[in-house]
Amino acid sequence: MFDVNAYQNYAAWIFDLDGTLSNTLQAHDLAWQHALTQFAIPFTSERMQQLGGVPIPDTVEILADEAGIRVDVPAVVNVRDRRFYELLPTTLSPTPLVAGVVLPFLGEKPMAVGTGCHTDMARRILAGLSLDHYLPVVVGADQVINPKPAPDTFLLAAEKLGVKPERCLVFEDADAGLKAAAAAGMAAVDVRKLWPVQRPLQ
User: Fold this and answer.
1) Are 172 and 151 a contacting pair, CB within 8 Å?
2) Which of 120, 158, 182, 200 has the most Cβ atoms closer than 10 angstroms to its Cβ?
């Protein structure tokens, strides 16, 4: 399932968060459905999956533009995030990558999180997984000018780790993140090939 021997050829590992380390897709889908319905923005699970890794405010803008609707983006984000945090305690769990790759190499392999969500949300998710003290290097979309699929998130994570980009291995579950890793000159593991992604909403 995990080719840990091959992963060790890289000096540092950078992990996406949602869907890669944390099973938060259900909470995100339900929160999106709640918020978008409230603001009369069309919602489909398929479209949300296509937008995986895109920062939340950008996703709102894209969906509103596609629907020809003008909305208060921060208001939609606030409703979405509030519902997400309400759902998190009962839906959050770690993915197999945590036990299979992260925990066995804590303290041995430099690791960081590079995510499309904002840093505060990422830290709250990591705290819910009891990983916040073990993965202190977190780069959220709010820390870079150009988030995924631009390479900035992963490049900043590598800089914080003190490792050259070409010596980093990225673990991702979204096309935007895989494009970001490639643009950063980093090798990547598509974790969708390691286990099936469960997205219950249609």
Assistant:
1) no
2) 158
* Residue 107 main-chain phi, psi, to 5 deg: 85, -15
Q: 73-91 vs 56-67: helix axis angle to the nearest 10?
A: 120
Taking residues 107-111, report their average pLDDT: 95
Q: How far apart are CA 157 and CA 125, in angstroms?
A: 18
Task: Examine the pLDDT at 8 and tell me if it is beyond 70.
Answer: yes
Out of 3, 16, 142, 173, pick the active-site residue.
16
* 173 has catalytic annotation: no
Backbone angles phi, psi at 100, to 5 degrees: -85, -25
Q: What is the torsion angle, in degrees rounded to the nearest 10, for the CA atoms of residue 135, residue 137, residue 140 and residue 143?
A: 170
Rounded Cα gap, residues 168 and 9, in angstroms: 9
